[in-house]
Each structure stands twice: as C-alpha cells, then as structure tokens.
Amino acid sequence: MAARRGLLGGTPRLVRRAASRRPAGGAGGVVLLDRRHLYILPTPGGVGFAVVLAAMLMTSLNYNISLGFALTFMLAGIGMSCMWLAYRNLLDLAVAAGPVAAVHAGQDATFHVRVDSRGDDARIGIEARVPAMPEVAAATLTLDANASGMLALRVPAPRRGRLELPRVTIASRFPFGLFQVWSHADLELSTVVYPAPEPGAPPPPPAHRPDHGDGAHAAASAARSEGGIDQLRRYRSGDPLHRIAWKHSARTGRWLSRAGDPPGQPARWLDWHALPAGMEPEARLSRLCAWLLAAGDEVEIGLRLPGMELAPARGASHRRACLKALAMWPQRPGPVRAAQHA
Asked: Is 91 helix (H, G, I), strand (E, B) or coil?
C-alpha cells in the first residue's frame, strides 16, 4: 500500500514538472524544440476518432465480421501514423526572435518570430499563438525542407512604454487534426510604444537662433574658430553629422564631436513647462509627440522634460531618441531587449 500510495502521490508532481519545463535557449537566444520539450495530446476530433474505432471493434467482435476487423485495424494504423507525423512536424525546429518596430499607443505591434527547419522534410501548418493574450490572432506558416520563415504576431499596444512579448506557443495539428503537438518558447523580445500624437494639435513653438552671449564672447568664439582651435568631446549617440570633427577623428582614430552649436543654426525647443498648466501629463506627452512628428529637418529640435533634457539636434536617430524619451518618461530610456528593432 505504501508503494502504491507513493506512486499515485508522485504522479501529479511529475506531470507538473513536465508541464513547467521550458526549452533551453541556445546561442543567440535560439530555442530548439527537441524531444524533451514537445508535448502531444489527441484533439477532440482525435478522441471522437478513437471512440468510433472502439465501437467498430466491439461490433466486429460481437458479430465476428472479418472485414470489420480489417477496417478497424487499418484505421488504427492510420491514426498511429498521424501521431508520428504530427510529432515529426515540430521536432528539431529552431525558434528565435525576429525584428520588431516601435509603434504609437493605440496601434498593434508586430512581433516577428523566426522559425528555421533543420531537416529534409517540409513543415506544414506551423502555428504560433500567445496564450496570455487570447485576443492576438494566431499566425501560421509552412516551410520547405531546410528553409526559414517568419511568424507575425500582432499584439495590441494600448499604452506607452515598453511592451514585451509573452510566452509563445508553437503548435501543429498536421496532418488530419487528430493530434496536437506543441511547445513553448520564451523569447526576450520587446519594443517601445511611443505616445499617441494629439489629433489637431496647435502649431509648435517657433524656432530661435541660439544665444551666444555678448559681443565679446561671440568675438572670442569667432577668433577661436578662425585660429583652428576646436572644443572637442567624445562622440555621443544622436550627434548630427555636421558636428562631427572628421579630420580630428581620422587623425586620432576615435569619433569626436565639436562642443557647442555652430552659429546661425535655428533650434526649436519642445518644452514640457511651456505647455498650459492645466494639462494632464499624458496630454502633454501626446502634444509633444505631435510636435515632434510634425517638425521637419530644417531646424534642430530640443526636448525638455522634468528631470531630462535632450540637446537640439536633427536627424532620424535624434527623433527616435526624443520619441523614446517621451515613451519611457518619467524613467530614463534604456536599451530595448531585442536583437533587431526599428
């Protein structure tokens, strides 16, 4: 009785341990669906098929119908073959994180999951879904032998900030839907959700030329510029191309930028504190986002937020840095956990 009680008591523990087992991530965040991490169960159609086979077998036994035995065993063999083919359809697939682009709040973020077939057989009806988000439509894919493909999952992004892709389930019901094979993949894939731009936002503040102080200071700056003396600093991400000291960088072997703004470059500051006092924080971020998207490249854009300031610059990289600062405020924007993102 003790041995029997130990066996029955240990079975749920083994089941829970097997259900919580996750595929181990390899080099580069690749998840290999090996034999230890594939699960298979009959579908409702498979259970109905088994019930029909049992009824056919009992009828053949009761009435001693030879053709009934032959048909029952032939269908049972087809069912066993379907189980093996369903298992082989996902075996040794390699799943990895693909590219994902940043979006604005209220849009859908498209996460791409890369699937690589490492065999000589075609993989038919591969399905990816997010169990934690039933509203996300499943994506399907069919691969040839030794081929690669992308599964696109459109995840809603209702709020600004960082959006992470939850656990993804890779499944298949090939060939006849009698058995379902599945596995889980935990991919470190995320993107940044920018604030939604305010519709019908008022015109942005006008651009101003930078103030260089009094005439003596301006004359001294001009003299230093004419004498060839530059105030250089180490290149920082987001510095525009016209600030890079190309000759000094080539001579020293390090990227260097000129400190300070060149005279005559107009700059437009998008200032949190310049907005009306009664605006909510999210409304302020939406208006600043609309102004940032509407601004062209003819002027430099600077951004001031409580506890954060981005110096005026231009270019796509500076615009993305400003949008990311708006998305992550009041936190400072950090790196996105994704190998590839736009």
From this structure: coil
